[in-house]
Amino acid sequence: MNTRRTFLRNLSGLALSTPLLAAAETPKTKNTLCFFTKHLQGLSYDDIASLAAEVGMNGIEAPIRPKGHIEPEKVVDELPKFIEALKKQNLEMTVMTSGISAVNAEQRTEEVLRTAAKLGVKRYRMGFIKYDLKKPIWPQLEAVKPQIKDLVALSKEIGIQPLFQNHSGKDYMAAPVWDMYSIMREYPTADFGFAFDILHATAEGGLSWPLEFELVHEHIGCAYFKDFKWVDRSKLETCPLGEGQVNPNYAKMLVKAGYKGPISLHVEYLKGDPKDPAVVKEFRAARARDVKMINEWMGWA
After folding, report:
1. Pairing mode, if any, of strands 235-239 and 227-231?
2. pTM over 0.70
3. Domains in the chain and their CATH numbers?
4. pLDDT value for 4
5. Which residues of the chain fall below pLDDT 70?
6. Cα–Cα distance for residue pair 259/163, rounded to 1 Å
7. What is residue 232's predicted lDDT score, i.e. its pLDDT?
8. Cβ(80)–Cβ(87) under 8 Å?
């Protein structure tokens, strides 16, 4: 029979053990941390690298794609310059965000990937693939398999890991996560993984995003941190980390799963001309705030 004295004794023991449990779950080493530099387009490579170093990043995720920092046809000449600027700050291009979704001449697939791999880039985010909603869905998914197989094979030969982002939207492949995982599960994570986007997983999955995470966590090649709020019920608007719908338990689940890969911070809510000193000052403060939030969520603080 439980008595009040027994209850208090048990409660006391639990209180003493809780810090030990928390300490055991705290990661001993931090994941590589980078941030997406889309909002810095127009700045020089050196300026981008300096801004990344200021807030304690290990690297960047850079859009090297049509309308990105570097257009595909200029990669051979320009990417070495960008990588050199990063090296001056002891940084890396952690993820190269590309427009590549297939092996073809139009996307300059082999040229871009070989150039990046030779410069030490270890992973790239693939371009989006969309469904035609006027046609049956499953046959379209099946039709993509050979396309992905060829791209994964080429990437493996070159020595660079392709990642596919789950993006919310009525016609985005991987919006429900399960569809792309049905293909991805056939490959080792080192050959093909997810750029797992918790914002889009939350927007699409609502309360079920932990199911998607548990399904694919062994195939995550990069974990995205970003947040959003709902506007007019059906439109999402990005916001500072911790101020929106994204659940901090995402970080705890990454730690519990033993995730060792890179983390990429996306600050797409930042707007303005990055060449304007006042705007850049705002950018610095925002990144520092979001990095602080990541440290707290991951148990690094």
Report:
1. antiparallel
2. yes
3. 31-298 (3.20.20.150)
4. 39
5. 1-29
6. 16
7. 84
8. no
Q: What is the pLDDT of residues 253-265, one digit of tens each?
A: 999 999 999 999 9
pLDDT of residue 28: 54
3-state secondary structure the chain: CCCHHHHHHHHHHHHHHHHHHHHHHCCCCCCCEEEECHHHECECHHHHHHHHHHCCCCEEEEECCCCCCCCHHHHHHHHHHHHHHHHHCCCEEEEEECCCCCCCCCCCHHHHHHHHHHCCCCEEECCCCECCCCCCHHHHHHHHHHHHHHHHHHHHHHCCEEEEECCCCCCECCCCCHHHHHHHCCCCCCCCEEEEEHHHHHHHHHHHHHHHHHHHHHHEEEEEECEEEEECCCEEEEECCCCCCCCCHHHHHHHHCCCCCCEEECCCCCCCCCCCHHHHHHHHHHHHHHHHHHHHHHCCC
- 243-276 CB burial, b ≥16 within 10 A, e <16: ebbbbeebbebbbeeebebbbbbbbebbeeebee
Amino acid at 33: L
Gap between the Cα atoms of 69 and 85, Å rounded:
13
pLDDT one-digit tens code per residue, 19-70? 333 343 544 569 999 999 999 999 999 999 999 999 899 999 999 999 999 9
Give me the pLDDT at residue 47, please.
96
